[in-house]
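F.,

This is the one I mentioned.
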């Protein structure tokens, strides 16, 4: 697709560094990471940055691999991932004077990118690739625009930029924003003076709402000064601010699969399942996994509930929830940890069967469905007490949307869907 550059993301390293380097060697575009470096000499393993000529402009592009402290390399891998604070200052001060436009491809999360924007006004655009799934329209932070497209290539981001000599983004809304903030400030001043008239002066420091208003006033004042300065600077410099237009283009769902690509995807899925299967076999034969014995788990399994609730069980057995694990088996994906969390009984609100996800690979069969306890909560103590107070009756929408995410079930609508799975009344 004629990409100029791609940043190395954290997940790209999942199959090992040497695998990625092999791929990069065959690619027709540059792979960038300024912070993935050799341990021995701190030189980048891929390129840190590049400069492209676009018309009369020099466009600098820097890559950053996501850094959250969790990345581990093997003993024999000559690699280390550095935090952006250690690498960006040098690269930006090297590139900024040589480039008209500077773009950062960042695999860091939004908060980190906002910090980067605060620290490096010379970076004009930050294109973000975080695990969050959706498109996010460009937002201005300090002098940088931060934007992201939906993951897995489901969307392309398209930005038409009119880049001016001013090298700053114009905020068409700045004048309006200033007016709104001034109006807000008037309101706060009014409320404060009413309190001042009512209360004694020495009581004000302990007056809660007065202090809250005071804090808002301080915040508004500094925002107003910032906006006023910005508008003033633009006017003084007589320079036109740069502007952009932004669109997201969805990949059409009716595009036919490419047979060669489809084959690679299918094979990869089977390989992932096979890897999970061998992991499960190892778990089963390792003697010390008490967490896999039903008696020791938080969840007790649907068979236990069935002994007292046969009409509800008979109903549930006819819903797709009862065969959710079966659906994975049919696709040979029952050992894929990307699928299991939503197709088994292992989580309810903040109760998780284990913090070790590999437990899902070897669950007892009574938990290999979207079972009763997914909706009603762990029921061991209720099964013993038979007390309705020990179990939850009606699952609310937050329970459902953990699995019925917009990505997996675009048409999920609680009010309708609850009807289709609600167990029948006992009497
Ligand atoms: C030994 C028998 C027994 C077992 C086992 C049992 N229950 Fe119950 N359950 C009861 C009784 C008795 C009630 C109260 C029935 C009533 O009030 O009509 C009840 C009530 C309920 C209710 C309704 C609660 C309410 O607020 O009205 C739910 C939901 C429920 N059980 C789910 C489960 C689930 C899920 C399991 C398995 C984890 C389970 N039960 C296991 C006996 C049992
Ligand atoms: C643990 C994940 C999970 C939770 C929680 C969950 N579901 Fe599901 N649901 C699934 C899966 C997976 C399927 C599809 C199973 C299959 O076809 O193999 C499904 C299927 C369904 C279906 C289709 C049923 C049918 O028989 O055709 C409905 C309706 C539904 N869920 C509603 C709900 C509602 C309402 C809630 C909340 C009260 C809920 N689900 C909670 C995972 C979940
Ligand atoms: C975030 C939760 C979630 C994850 C992760 C998940 N699923 Fe599902 N899956 C669902 C839900 C919800 C449904 C029901 C969707 C509906 O009713 O339209 C479903 C339905 C299904 C179905 C039956 C309906 C169909 O589309 O044919 C299959 C098969 C399936 N999933 C396979 C998988 C596989 C394979 C994976 C892993 C690669 C996976 N799922 C990962 C939640 C999930
Ligand atoms: C996908 C969610 C879901 C699953 C899975 C599920 N239930 Fe329910 N169950 C409900 C809903 C919704 C209701 C209706 C609650 C209401 O409207 O008050 C309900 C009601 C009940 C009741 C109370 C019936 C009454 O009115 O006395 C019992 C008992 C019950 N379920 C048992 C079970 C058992 C046993 C299983 C597993 C075999 C199970 N449920 C699986 C969602 C679920």
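My design for it:
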């Amino acid at each position: 697709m004629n990409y100029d550059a791609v940043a190395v993301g954290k997940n790209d390293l999942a199959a090992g560094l040497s695998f990625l380097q092999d791929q990069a060697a065959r690619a027709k575009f540059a792979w960038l990471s300024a912070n993935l470096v050799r341990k021995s000499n701190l030189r980048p393993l891929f390129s840190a940055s590049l400069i492209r000529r676009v018309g009369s402009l020099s466009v600098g592009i820097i890559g950053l691999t996501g850094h959250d402290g969790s990345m581990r390399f093997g003993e024999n891998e000559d690699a280390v991932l550095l935090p952006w604070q250690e690498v960006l200052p040098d690269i930006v001060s090297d590139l900024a004077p040589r480039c008209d436009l500077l773009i950062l491809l960042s695999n860091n999360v939004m908060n980190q990118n906002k910090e980067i924007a605060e620290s490096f006004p010379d970076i004009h655009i930050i294109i973000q690739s975080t695990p969050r799934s959706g498109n996010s329209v460009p937002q201005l932070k300090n002098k940088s625009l931060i934007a992201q497209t939906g993951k897995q290539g489901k969307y392309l981001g398209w930005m038409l930029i009119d880049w001016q000599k001013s090298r700053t983004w114009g905020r068409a809304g700045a004048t309006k924003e200033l007016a709104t903030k001034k109006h807000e400030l008037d309101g706060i001043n009014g409320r404060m003076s009413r309190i001042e008239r009512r209360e004694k002066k020495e009581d004000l420091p302990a007056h809660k709402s007065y202090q809250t208003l005071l804090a808002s006033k301080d915040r508004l004042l500094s925002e107003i000064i910032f906006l006023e300065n910005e508008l003033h600077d633009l006017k003084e410099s007589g320079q036109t601010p740069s502007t952009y237009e932004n669109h997201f283009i969805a990949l059409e769902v009716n595009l036919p699969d490419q047979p060669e690509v489809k084959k690679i995807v299918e094979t990869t899925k089977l390989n992932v399942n096979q890897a999970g299967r061998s992991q499960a076999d190892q778990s089963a034969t390792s003697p010390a996994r008490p967490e896999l014995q039903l008696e020791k788990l938080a969840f007790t399994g649907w068979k236990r509930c069935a002994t007292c609730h046969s009409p509800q069980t008979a109903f549930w057995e006819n819903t797709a929830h009862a065969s959710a694990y079966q659906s994975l088996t049919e696709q040979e994906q029952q050992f894929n940890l990307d699928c299991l969390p939503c197709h088994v009984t292992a989580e309810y609100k903040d109760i998780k069967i284990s913090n070790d996800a590999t437990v899902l690979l070897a669950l007892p069969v009574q938990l290999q469905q979207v079972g009763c306890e997914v909706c009603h909560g762990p029921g061991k103590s209720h099964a013993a007490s038979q007390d309705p107070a020990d179990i939850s009756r009606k699952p609310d929408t937050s329970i459902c949307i953990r699995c019925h995410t917009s990505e997996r079930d675009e048409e999920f609508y609680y009010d309708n869907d609850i009807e289709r799975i609600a167990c029948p009344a006992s009497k």
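The chain is about 35% helix and 15% strand.

Talk soon.
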